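Annotated sample (chain length 157).
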Amino acid sequence: CSNSLQSHGKEFRRCSGCNVAPYCSKNCQSVAWNSEQFPHKNICKILQNIVAVAGTELLFPQSVCEHASYPYETRNLVVEKWQKGDVSLDILMEIEEWSTFRSSYVDSRYLRTECLPGFDDYDAKLDELSKGNSSLKRTRFFRFRFDVYSYVICVNF
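Output written by the structure step:
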């Protein structure tokens, strides 16, 4: 659906099976579960299996990610862990296609929206953080429409 965190007004829930796919409502989850192109009932099982192989450590090697600019420096390590966990390229490609599909029907107006203040001195903190760094202009602080699909990385093999 085209709901965003801002338009929906509250945090999205996640699928209780895979804990990866976000949904704004039970109806949205139901529609995705039975989708023609990528029914979540199939994708969910794949995601559960990928996570079960070695949890998030399989997908995001934490000790490396803390010191590297994710994802480029860690991509090879992530792929290596996937391969060690017997996660086939076919399965990864299906997950990548699903991820792309989920993003493709979003109205481009909702892809990035300015952050709403989360606390009283929000504007002052943004100004302080961006001061002296011309690449961090105030208008460039955005929140993405979806939170990142935690376990899905689109990797070019």
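Annotation: The chain has one domain: 5-144.
Annotation: Residues 60-70, 107-113, 138-157 have pLDDT under 50 and may be disordered.
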